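Troubleshooting log. The previous structure file for this entry was overwritten by mistake, so regenerating from the original sequence record. Sequence copied from the archived sheet and checked twice against the printout by T.R.
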Amino acid sequence: MKVTLVYSPAPRQVREWRLELPVGSTARQAVLLSGALNEYPDLARAAPALGIWGRACGADQTLQEDDRVEIYRGLRVDPKVARRERFKGQGVKRAGLFSKKREGSKAGY
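Regenerated output below.
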């Protein structure tokens, strides 16, 4: 069965492996057989999060023909914290749903 394994080591960089695996293979086996752990040793240190076509899955997930297995890297910054920091910098008047106000209109329009 043919499977694609994808990993993005940095923004705007994508490494792709096309693999021929026996029927009944798991996501873990795809990662091991691809050689990704040798090419990117940081993946071997921490158990990477995996997904199939954008949906998270476990390492023991059985693969099907033409699946796209994705290796996810960890977030550097918590999205909630990043949003909070951006909001602090912009201020209340310039952020949010009603930030653009027409002159002479009521609040919120």
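The beta strands are 2-10, 13-20, 49-52, 55-57, 68-72. Archived copy saved in two places this time.
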